[in-house]
Amino acid sequence: MKPIAIFLCFLALVGCGGKDSPKPPLSALLVFPQKNSECTTGIDVTGTNTSTVEFRWQTSDHTESYELRATNLNSNTTQTIVVNGSSAKLPIVKGAPYSWLVVSRNTKVSETARSETWRFYNAGVETTHAPFPAEVISPKTGSNITKDLNNEVLLDWEGADVDNDLEDYEVYFSTENPPTTLIATLTSGKSDFKVSVLANTVYYWRVVTMDREGNTATNSISEFKVR
């Protein structure tokens, strides 16, 4: 009986083994346009204020297709394209700031993977560039957070400028949308600020970034609720 039992166990293992479960895709690594740079390689689209830019990234494991998303930071409009390779071309507005990312997909699984988000300027006729709109680090918009022991919350953001000449930040913060109360003007060396808050209250905030040439950029309004 013993050899038969061993044989039956072997058959059971073989029958249950099968193929490995499909693995979710991994995040792609972005290559070009580079982070916080000016893209000067666009090809003019005749009769328009656009140029065609080739976006490139490294392929990622367990991925069948890639969705490129390029967002005009001035108009907050997003263009998308799905490809199977590691590059894609899009016509985008000249002289405008953009952010871009790549989503990795696999039809065998529901999970997707996002790359980092990079920002760049698409070259135009400008000799000086406005800063990139401030990128919110925390609190993320739509989040529910807890105030600290001093009944405060830290507003934290990141600024960048192609010309590397950031000057100041103006921080607007209020329970009204849009926030119109200027609560602080900070030098470019400081990109966070603590604010007093109340529990069970929704707050709105935004940052105006300025450079030494007098150019400005305003980010989208962020909102969060204090528990």
From TrEMBL:
It comes from Arenibacter arenosicollis. This is Fibronectin type-III domain-containing protein. It comes from the Bacteria.
